[in-house]
Amino acid sequence: MKTHARVVVIGGGVVGVGTLHALVKKGWSDVVLIERNELTSGSTWHAAGLLPLFNMSYSVGQIHKYSVKLYDGLEAETGQHVGFKKVSNIRLARTAERMDEYHYYAGVAETIGVKVNFLTPAELKEIWPLCETDGIIGAIQHPDDGYIQPADLTQSLAKGARDGGAQIYRKTRVIGIEQKPGGEWLVKTDKGDITCEHLVSATGNFVRQTGNMLGLDVPVIPVEHQYIVTEPHPAIQARQKAGLPEMGVLRESDSSWYMREESGGLLLGPYEKGAPCCYVDGPAEDAEYELFQEDLDRLAPHIETAMARVPAFGEVGIKKVYNGAICYTPDGSPIIGPAWSRRNLWLNEGHSFGVTAAGGAGWQLAEWIVEGEPSIDMMGVDPRRFGPYASRGYLKKKNEEAYRMVFTLHYPDEERPEARPVKQSPCYDHMKALGAVFGSVYGWERPNWFAPKGYGFDPAEIERPDVLTNENHAPVAPGEKVKELWSFRRSNYFEHVGNECRHVHEKVGLLDMTAFAKYECSGPGADAWLDSILANRIPKKIGRVGLCHLLSQTGGVRSEFTVHRTGPQSFYMVGPGAFERHDWDTLTKLLPATGDVRLQKVTGQYGVLVLAGPASRDVLQKLTDTDLSNASFPWLTGKPISVGIAQAQALRVNFVGELGWELHHPMEMQNTIFDLVMAAGAEFDIKPFGIRAMTSLAIEKSYRLIPRELSIEYSAYESGLDRFVHPNKGQFLGRDALVERHAAGDKWKYVTMEVHGVSDADARGSEPIYRNGELVGRATSGGFGWRVGKSLALAMVKPEHGGEGTELEIKILGQMHKATVIGESPFDPDNECLRA
Ligand SMILES: Cc1cc2nc3c(=O)[nH]c(=O)nc-3n(C[C@H](O)[C@H](O)[C@H](O)COP(=O)(O)OP(=O)(O)OC[C@H]3O[C@@H](n4cnc5c(N)ncnc54)[C@H](O)[C@@H]3O)c2cc1C
Fold this sequence. Notes:
It is globular, with a radius of gyration of 27 Å. The chain is built from 21 helices and 35 strands. By secondary structure, the protein is of the alpha+beta class. Helix content is 26%, strand content 26%. The N and C termini lie far apart (71 Å). Residues 10-16, 34-37, 41-44, 46-50, 173-174, 202-206, 210, 225, 227, 322, 324-327, 351-356 line the site of flavin-adenine dinucleotide.
């Protein structure tokens, strides 16, 4: 066995081998894969081999698309058969809301370049004559996907990798991992040690054990997944004999199962409720080709619906039931990218559709390793999107939920209920008592909006007993009312959010933003270090606040921080709560070795209450002896103030475009401040408001968000950050690439659009945008702007179509709307409210 390699990949399933193959394609041949047993002896051997292109995420969608294209050409490359059957993939709809989901998805697919056809029940019957169409209102078909033989695919990828110089060591187990002081990895195996520069973990169901070796609690725990294979059916055999094409992969989303032909019979795979987590501490050391005892009772409701939809399925006996472990993460997407707090350690784990994702995941990971950055925005699959809160107990609940919700409608406003609340602000109960309907981000509970007293629906009123995937609201305790219905359209909370927006604009509101990630940076080198990594000028005067972006090395936007200078050598920085681990990891990896910069994460020490609206000064002035007038406390400054008997660092900034202050206070003083502010605000009719109102208010200001308008896929100039980017200030991370990219000509332009003719479905982000029938861009956010009274969309379009006044079209849920490019910040473009 070699003793040194540039990269060692642990795990010879389809994902590990896919990564090895991609590294070789990128030109690195000194790469090694270590497999404890035989290739595909983990989850890969019993996968059903389906390659569903369907995915609501812009990034995962691109990964899947790449895989399918790669697999299509693999046989030509390696000479080894992969068994790819492009039989197409059909998803059925029985409800109007399911059709909304398909229309929304079709928009995402169009912007990615994935073909989707809409089918009528009659067209469906033509393709799938064994499928009954009663109750079906429509379907979508991916003509380019189908299924593949996972083992053949893996062997073919392995051949391609070996042909390019990679080495694969089978029957070799990694038993220990150490990082040497110089940063190299020492991988200990039962056949000897190997040292490498980069280490990739692709160990599937064994990831808990790998995590132990690495000292990382990787947020993956597998769940049991079963599929049933029947005996041959005469009708299918007759079709085969007659040379008729194989019927596509069929998915009855509303009954939560997939079905395809298999050896003259049928294969049925349900995603059922009650499937338990497994391998919580990993499989046994000697596990191979492992299957669990089947549990058909659990599948009964799905089998019943499958027999009704495809009677042939019930007409033949069951040949075999496969019950295998399938990896899950709390949100169901894999984790692909760098591990946190370790250098040159890469995770390609947590794949529940690993056969589908392997090619694309390997492609992006190889780019990241070889070039230092992927070309696709990987935030949706980044390992650092979960924090330390995602521990065993949390994972068990969340991963079982992610499994059972594979086929539920993926509403854009869905708030999944399991493992909540895990992180609460101290004012959680206060907010709840005021009617807060909570959402969750990075484990934090945040009020999304406030329901009036006694408001809600009786659950029985809104049940849809005709479908198995019935969840369109959070479950409620007996006797409790449902407050919020999820939808692709304007939902029941629309007007209430509008009231909150109006109230903040006309009077004053209070918002809990404790979930913000917070950092303190200090030391003699702090100023110079921040200046060297951030694109904006670092605030010079004590008290000044600036919005600063950390760019990727190619000039895209990786992170965003509000930077407040608190002293000659100290800064307080605020970032998005959802990216705390990502940003912390990025920042700490950039810290200079000189030791003259101290960086601390202080998220848990400070709560944040945002006071916003024209009366906010009057309210706060009642509680503090600090002069809050414009002359003494202008916009974009901050200072420590007393708030009654408590204290806070007050920053005169906010994300809603109104006069206001963010009060960053010691966490333990939150309720004192909350009570004081609410009491002082009573005479001004103060009311709480939530994240949904904040989002609408922010869209009216054209404020950008990671990973929507800001992303590594768009340069900072393309995202319209000219005001915040200063190439003339000297070197900073990504500067040269940004300047070069800009000089070569921007490929995108960030625009704000007014969408016309919207009555019940605003843009949400990811809708395709056209001009004269040509696809010219995609929406990144959207919603109704209550202050301007318009339906708005934020978008990235080709620059030649981004001029103010340009008439475009946007497809929302399958319907074309006229849209006009309007000036940035349709509400208060001169920031008069913020400066008031
Ligand atoms: C019943 C079932 C049906 C499925 N159907 C589909 C489908 O239709 N489409 C789809 O896309 N996905 C499907 N999946 C999921 C798919 O099987 C997985 O996502 C995929 O196989 C994961 O591949 P992997 O390489 O990550 O893991 P694995 O295939 O489990 O490979 C991990 C490898 O790492 C090795 N390893 C672990 N630890 C060590 C160590 N310390 N030293 C050396 N080697 C080590 C293991 O031996 C193993 O071979 C299905 C899964 C199940 C259970």
